[in-house]
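From the shared-data thread, chain only:
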Amino acid sequence: MLQVNNLHVHLDTPDGTVKAVDGVTFSIEAGETVGIVGESGSGKSVLAHSLMKLNPEPPAAYPEGDVYFNDRSVLKMNKKELRKLRGSDIAMIFQDPMSSLNPVFKIGKQLIEAIQAHRKRPKKEAREKAIELLRDVGIPDPEARIESYPHQFSGGMRQRVLIAMALASEPKLLIADEPTTALDVTIQAQVLELLKGIQKRYGAAIMIITHDLGVVAHLADRILVMYAGRLVESGSAEDIFYRTAMPYTWSLLRSIPSVGGGERLVPIDGQPPSLIDPPAGCSFEPRCPFATEACRHVDPDLKERGSGHEAACLLSFSEFESLKEGVVSS
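Structure, as tokens:
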């Protein structure tokens, strides 16, 4: 359904050109859930916005690659075609619901406007659909709450309203950009369960973007790990969590608190590289505990590590496993 081919996204800044997305290739099938994880600044949100060509031009430019939705080039679409794509075929849930909802309009007005923009329904019918959507996302007493303003909802409820707005036109692909960042752990779990239920009900594909691997552990069919604007590992949840083949992914996992506790968290040393002037070799080499001299000069491509599992690392799977065991045992 969605195919991203060697996508490059550059951002023009006073300090130089930021290579925010640097040659990313992946696909999403109908009904599939794909998680994209990585630290802040790794290019996740720029990539997500590129799928609907939402990055403002300038400063954004697309020097190479393309994005195809149902075999149509998104980057070559005109404004009218993009308006039809956004919301109708691809919808996005942004990470900050308070800044995404207009504080001076009631929730119902904003939902009805979203429905009428894409489905051309009469106002009465659109209102009934809005109430139905609020009920679907777990808003209690939707007939009354549709008359509320955004500030009268809690953070979790506002996020549910945003999900309802994204579902207004029954999109084929739902992009959730850090949908649980501003929520506490209990509400996070509720929102993630809601997304799973919505996928079963509406059959939409979901792309969820987060810096937290734990968020996508039980939600994603496939996980893509981004670092410095590139994909450095991709595979199933089992591959990423139990057969990690890239030092960066392994380092991310070691920084996640365990349920039982008792173990010290191991932060990743150093800072992500500059995307204006990235290092010559592997972009993770300055922070990698297993880096060799070759890593300073060779920028590895994604290589097959198993069926559907790829990683960008010069170490073989067996070499990396041996090095990991040595660190854990010590």
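Residues 226-329 form one domain.
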